[in-house]
Design goal:
Diphtheria Toxin Repressor, domain 2; 2 domains; mainly alpha; two-stranded antiparallel sheet; 6 helices; Arc Repressor Mutant, subunit A
Length: 122
């Protein structure tokens, strides 16, 4: 499924908040990303349509199996790329985080796997 960068960022944020607090609501996502409740609401609606999340009657956002898999994939790319930039290219932490966040959305599977292989073999 084609998911835009913003959708990937929302999934990643939901996963991280879920791991941190165990319970995620739209307001938590809005606060974490510093977005308006209206834009988060629109995004949650799109993620529901794509079957990446469900929202229960208490307003809790729950990742579906496909949503969780996609969020974990995005987080893996983010963490791996950040580590690569820090350890191999010696980029400062703040820049590595920002660059990894941008790269994770556009990097090809082949290039990403190549980076993972370099890291695994060194």
């Amino acid at each position: 499924m084609a998911l835009l960068e913003s959708g990937e960022n929302y999934l990643e944020t939901i996963l991280l908040l879920e791991r941190k607090t165990g319970f995620v609501r739209s307001i938590d996502v809005a606060t974490e990303l510093n977005f308006t409740k209206a834009s988060v609401s629109r995004a949650m609606s799109n993620l529901k349509k794509e079957n990446f999340i469900v929202v229960n009657k208490d307003g809790q956002i729950i990742l579906t199996a496909s949503g969780k898999a996609r969020a974990e994939e995005i987080l893996d790319r983010h963490e791996t790329l950040t580590k690569f930039l820090l350890d191999y290219l010696k980029v400062p932490q703040d820049i590595a985080e920002k660059d990894a966040c941008r790269i994770e959305h556009v990097i090809s599977t082949e290039t990403f796997n190549g980076i993972k292989n370099i890291m695994k073999n060194n």
